[in-house]
Specification:
Elements: H1 6-17, H2 19-26, E1 35-36, E2 53-54, H3 57-62, E3 66-69, H4 77-86, E4 90-93, H5 96-113, E5 117-118, H6 129-136, E6 142-148, H7 151-163, H8 167-176, H9 185-188, H10 191-205, H11 224-232, E7 235-246, E8 251-262, E9 274-281, E10 285-292, H12 296-316, E11 338-348, H13 353-363, E12 368-374, E13 380-387, E14 390-391, H14 392-404, E15 408-417
Parallel strand pairs: 1-2, 3-4, 4-5, 8-15
Antiparallel strand pairs: 6-7, 6-9, 7-8, 9-10, 11-13, 11-14, 11-15, 12-13
The chain binds NADPH dihydro-nicotinamide-adenine-dinucleotide phosphate and ligand LTNE7NMQ.
Length: 420
């Protein structure tokens, strides 16, 4: 094992407590031969066998049949995982950042070394969505994947929606409860979700998708007022990872952003720090994977499922599914990515101003689905406009046009609408 932190220490505990069952399920003897950490003298959970601790990670990799990488980040994880795979050792990892940035290199090394790469824990913790896409749905064609794949941001948005907390208050509470880190950027700016979106899209569409292909908007600009307004109109706001097949454009779109969802959508019911992924497949229809997306024991459960599979294959033969990239669909840009969008603007409450706004929409080929105007007492009307499906590029031009229109005081928010 490489790493013995939040997840690694729970893997060690469960490996010890359930050794007999895990070995029986694998049909193989499982022996933990070493645990590489940064600080071998540091405090550890009482069940961690101190005699197995080492700071020589490369030396440990050289003598293991199965390497469980729970260090996180890019280096030294990348070098160690490549070393393991190239020498034929199976790798089990929960490292979404590494997979989303260097997936092709890792799969290439696995192919060269005749090795297997397992990564159930990399997306949505305990929720078996990697297995679901990689194996259960191998006989189907996926049309779309929509997921709440970051528990911290779902907790923050849920607190804002249900308890009226401001963004800052909700982040502070998430930190107090151990969901958010001292620096919450990776979660609140959407980077963690983007890495998971890239992995899900790669699996769903048999295409290499890297984190650099995923446009990201985090949740910093979502306000308690927006959450309350969403509720008034029967919606919730969730940070979604969205990956869609566009048959007409023969490509896929992948993105992460806050989105309005109808309160009746299955993802709207996902509360607190839970994760859920909805997969829409041609024959299976809609499937939903739901559960704990983070935390030591839930994530260790996913790691151990991979360890059991890996050990079974080592002893009895067989392999993890190879990387499937035969479709290699292009990842579409904003000119070919379709979305429905809600735009809120502050507008001079004067004759003709709404017509000017409608003109900007029309000139950019974006069709308006609904308009709601709030009563104004100060001469500035707040208008909420939802458009029919348009391309993201046309919508971006519309928003730019609105921002230049002198009678539009402010573009307050631009939010995607999903799930209707
Ligand atoms: N935490 C969670 O809920 C989830 C985590 N994951 C993923 O699992 C992985 C592990 O996460 P987590 O357990 O939270 O991470 P932690 O930060 O809690 O633990 C990291 C471990 O890696 C060790 N480590 C760091 N650098 C080195 C190094 N250079 N050489 C050897 N060991 C090193 C640390 O050693 P030391 O103890 O000495 O500091 C520590 O034991 C990450 O990829 C993460 O994204 C996935 C899903 C959920
Ligand atoms: N920070 C993540 C957990 C790890 O994947 C989250 O909040 O979901």
């Amino acid at each position: 094992m490489l790493g013995c932190g939040t997840v690694g220490s729970q893997v060690v505990r469960l490996l010890g407590e359930h050794a007999a069952d895990l070995q029986a399920r694998a049909g193989a003897r499982l022996e933990l031969v070493g645990i590489a950490v940064r600080d071998t003298a540091g405090e550890r959970a009482p069940w961690v066998p101190r005699e197995l601790l080492t700071d020589d990670a490369a030396g440990l990799v050289a003598r293991a049949d199965v390497v469980v990488e729970l260090v996180g980040g890019i280096e030294p994880a990348r070098t160690l995982v490549l070393q393991a795979l190239e020498s034929g050792a199976t790798v089990v990892t929960g490292n979404k950042a590494l997979l989303a940035a260097h997936g092709p290199a890792l799969h290439g090394a696995a192919a060269r070394g005749g090795a297997d790469l397992y990564y159930e824990a990399a997306v949505a913790g305990a929720v078996p969505v990697v297995y679901g896409l990689r194996e259960s749905l191998a006989g189907d064609n996926v049309n779309a994947v929509l997921g709440i794949v970051n528990g911290t941001t779902n907790f923050i948005l849920d607190e804002m929606a249900t308890n009226g907390l401001s963004f800052d208050q909700a982040v502070a509470l998430a930190q107090e409860l151990g969901y958010a880190e001292a620096d919450p950027s990776a979660d609140v700016d959407g980077h963690d979700a983007a890495a998971k979106a890239a992995i899900l899209a790669s699996l769903a569409f048999h295409t290499r998708v890297s984190i650099d292909d995923v446009p990201v908007t985090g949740i910093r600009d979502v306000t308690a007022e927006q959450m309350a307004q969403a509720a008034e109109s029967g919606h919730v706001i969730k940070l979604l990872a969205v990956a869609r097949l566009n048959r007409d454009a023969r490509g896929i779109s992948v993105r992460v952003h806050p989105a309005l969802l109808p309160a009746t959508h299955p993802l709207a019911a996902v509360r607190g720090a839970f994760n859920a992924v909805v997969v829409e497949a041609e024959s299976a229809g809609r499937l939903m994977f739901y559960g704990q997306g983070a935390g030591g024991a839930p994530t260790a459960s996913a790691v151990l499922s991979d360890v059991v599979a890996a050990a079974g294959h080592k002893v009895h033969g067989g392999h993890a599914p190879r990387e499937s990239t035969y479709a290699q669909l292009p990842v579409l840009g904003p000119e070919s990515t379709a979305a429905r969008t809600q735009v809120q603007i502050g507008l001079a409450d004067e004759p003709g101003t709404l017509a000017a706004v409608a003109g900007i929409y029309g000139d950019n080929g974006v069709s308006i689905e609904s308009v709601h105007q709030q009563r104004s007492d100060d001469g500035v009307a707040r208008i909420t406009i939802i458009s029919h499906v348009s391309t993201e590029a046309a919508l971006e031009r519309t928003v730019a046009g609105l921002a230049e229109e002198p009678r539009v005081h402010e573009v307050i928010s631009v939010t995607r609408v999903e799930g209707e």
